[in-house]
Specification:
The chain has one domain: Alpha-Beta Plaits (2-Layer Sandwich), CATH 3.30.70. Helices cover 34% and strands 34% of the residues. The chain is built from four helices and four strands. Strands 2-3-1-4 form a four-stranded antiparallel sheet, with helices on one face. A hairpin with a 2-residue loop joins β2 and β3. α2 packs antiparallel against α4. The longest helix is centred in the last third of the chain and has 23 residues.
Length: 143
């Protein structure tokens, strides 16, 4: 791990986003609350928060960070679901990896919950894809 002992704690926030492209029929099934496994957005929010909290366990060289806030929001659009994860902490290092991991796990969970709707006749996913995972913004300032 990188030595951060000489750094002082600052208020740090990172916002990440990404989306999953889905069939229009899948989006409609989600909007109607008819997905067999339950509400993908509710479950994905819990998964995103859990992933953020476990980042240092999953990415070996990440520092453990005392999190102060994790926010997850979804936007169900025509043909896609977009997720945004905001993470804040007062720490010596940033929270970008936490925000990214939250986004990726939320999107992967949506895929898992609707995969039966997304498969084609051969059991493949010709149009489903996770796209645009990125850091929108990161900030640091005095606490």
């Amino acid at each position: 791990m990188i030595d951060i002992s000489g750094k002082r704690p600052l208020k740090r926030t990172a916002v990440a986003e990404g989306s999953i492209k889905l069939k229009p029929e899948t989006i409609e099934t989600m909007r109607k609350g008819k997905v067999r496994k339950g509400d993908p957005l509710v479950i994905s929010e819990i998964v995103a928060i859990t992933a953020v909290k476990k980042t240092s366990d999953l990415i070996p060289l990440c520092h453990q960070i005392p999190l102060e806030h994790v926010g997850v929001s979804f936007d169900v659009l025509d043909g896609r679901v977009k997720v945004q994860v905001t993470v804040s902490a007062t720490a010596k290092t940033g929270v970008e990896m936490e925000a990214l991991l939250g986004v990726v796990m939320a999107l992967t969970t949506v895929w898992d919950m609707v995969k039966y709707l997304e498969k084609d006749g051969a059991g493949q996913y010709p149009t489903t894809r996770i796209e645009g995972v990125r850091i929108l913004r990161k900030e640091k300032h005095e606490p």
